[in-house]
From TrEMBL:
Keywords: Membrane, Transmembrane, Transmembrane helix. Signal peptide: none annotated. This is Thioredoxin domain-containing protein. The keyword Protease does not apply. The keyword Transmembrane applies. It comes from Panagrolaimus superbus. Residues 400-413 have a biased composition (Polar residues). InterPro entries: DnaJ_C16_autophagy_reg (IPR052448). The chain crosses the membrane at residues 352-373. It comes from the Eukaryota. Residues 383-413 are annotated as: Disordered.
Length: 507
């Protein structure tokens, strides 16, 4: 890419120019270069960094919620406590760099709120003017925490990154993305092998004891930072595509025992592996035997006595931390608004807002005047729409009256309904009597309308409109009976349903 193309992509029109590129956005320094200094550049860079990388904590409840998310996020929790109300630029830069492996929060120690004072007491912070960084891992209420404190000078960028690099992962991390896999299972040579011990489990609560037992094993047998054996676990139901490239163990896993995968990544896209079949037990009663067996296997791995004979292809893991589409869309909209607001200074924003406000006021006034001085349109809008319930069908041959605006729409709709219902409405006669009445299955019903030669057309139109919502119900059948042709049968039916001496019909 040439310099001209790069300047065009960065939308640089004049030189000199200062730009910040963050999350795909290009933000230009809009102020005058006269009297520019290092402080103004730092403030400019700090203001364009999204605040989502560094949360602000002001209460004890917010701190508890922040620390308790270590299991779901699979990340360490980095708490920064400073004497400045606004976080320093190096805090933002560090949070951006390690955002995939850690969550960051900032506490202003100079606040006089009671919650801040209780936070200082809970975190055992006695120095009033000190800068503190505390890193929490699993079980923050009782687990170990890495702490770094500076009382006189500020933290340097190297000091912050150094302490985070030493405590970059949880004691038992989960392989939840390709970044985690590259860090925990790096490519290594044959002479200096790095082994990755992986426990495949699902995210169901029933398999939580296997992970808890492995965490207790790590605490009981801690390993140094320079160890070439890294222990982790993976959710097999989420990363099934990754695990498909490894042959299943010969001993299938059950509810009591799990197999452990030993992996050596000799190339970036290939790995040598072997299964420790049925070695891991989540039962606390057999914990001692399980720990000794795994410790013995790890000793063989470190000495190179465990043969890794099978080869598998390494594919990308699914990123379990990727936000949902709604979150990504919301963040994009917020970034766009922040960028526009950052570009527009106060002197430029007021005229633009004034023009937009004037435009909406003019449109509102025009709408009100149009509605006030156009009574015919208002009458048409609020005119009561006639319906079929406004007339009594004493004479079924008399159609309901409709205004001119509704006739065409109603006529086309009635034609469509009749055309669709016509094949479903059968005449009740000798050929269809058994199908419509005598041989009905349990739960099925037939709806019959009585018509004569004169009222047939009108009544069938109305009947089709009323039964149209039931057209897709397979338990309904529809028909009509011509009274002129079946007068004797209809007379007999009426005589049979007349009440007898006991007050009930004969049917």
């Amino acid at each position: 890419m040439t310099d001209g193309v790069l300047l065009e992509k960065l939308r640089v029109t004049t030189l000199p120019s200062i730009v910040v590129l963050v999350e795909g956005r290009v933000v230009h320094f809009r102020k005058s270069f006269n009297g520019i200094n290092a402080k103004s550049i730092r403030l400019f860079a700090r203001d364009v960094i999204p605040t989502t990388f560094l949360h602000r904590i002001t209460t004890h409840v917010m701190l508890r919620r922040f620390l308790d998310q270590w299991k779901t996020t699979n990340r360490i929790s980095v708490l920064m406590l400073g004497t400045k109300e606004e976080p320093r630029l190096r805090y933002y830069l560090t949070a951006m760099k390690y955002s995939h492996f850690a969550r960051f929060a900032y506490v202003f120690l100079g606040s006089h709120q009671e919650d801040i004072q209780s936070l200082k007491t809970a975190l055992n912070i006695k120095c009033r003017d000190c800068e503190n960084v505390i890193i929490f891992k699993e079980e923050p209420e009782k687990g170990e925490a890495a702490r770094i404190t500076v009382s006189t000078n500020q933290f340097s960028q190297d000091e912050l990154q150094g302490v985070i690099e030493k405590n970059k992962f949880l004691q038992l991390p989960r392989l939840s993305s390709m970044q985690y896999f590259d860090e925990l299972c790096p490519t290594s040579s044959r002479s200096l092998r790095h082994y990755c011990i992986i426990l495949p489990v699902t995210d169901a609560e029933s398999e939580e004891p296997f992970v808890s037992a492995l965490y207790r094993f790590i605490n009981a047998h801690p390993r140094s930072d320079k160890s070439r054996v890294k222990i982790s676990y993976i959710f097999s139901n989420r990363q099934d595509f990754f695990l498909q490239h490894f042959s299943a163990p010969k001993i299938s896993d059950d509810t009591k025992r799990k197999s452990i995968l030993v992996l050596w990544r000799n190339e970036y896209v290939k790995a040598k592996y072997a299964w420790l079949e049925g070695i891991w037990n989540g039962d606390e009663l057999e914990e001692y035997k399980t720990f000794d067996l795994l410790k013995e296997k790890l000793h063989l791995i470190e000495r190179g006595n465990l043969r890794l004979e099978e080869t598998a292809k390494i594919v990308n893991l699914l990123d379990e931390h990727i936000p949902s589409w709604f979150t990504r869309l919301s963040r994009r909209v917020i970034r766009m608004v922040e960028t526009v607001w950052f570009y527009i200074a106060k002197e430029e924003a007021l005229p633009v807002l004034s023009v937009i406000g004037s435009f909406f006021v003019i449109m509102l006034c025009g709408y009100i005047l149009n509605a006030a001085f156009n009574p015919d349109k208002k009458q048409r809008v609020f005119e009561k729409q006639p319906s079929s319930s406004d007339w009594h069908p004493d004479d079924p041959r008399t159609p309901p009256t409709r205004n001119e605006s509704m006739r065409s729409t109603a006529s086309s709709r009635q034609t469509r309904i009749l055309k669709e219902m016509e094949p479903m409405i059968h005449e009740l006669r000798a050929e269809t009597y058994f199908g419509l009445i005598r041989l009905l299955k349990p739960g099925c019903r037939s709806i019959i309308v009585l018509v004569d030669k004169e009222s047939k057309e009108v009544l069938l139109h109305q009947f089709a409109r009323h039964v149209y919502p039931l057209r897709n119900n397979k338990t309904f059948s529809f028909g009509y009976l011509m009274i002129d042709k079946n007068l004797a049968w209809f007379k007999t039916l009426l005589e049979q349903i007349l009440p007898g001496e006991d007050g009930e019909g004969s049917l």
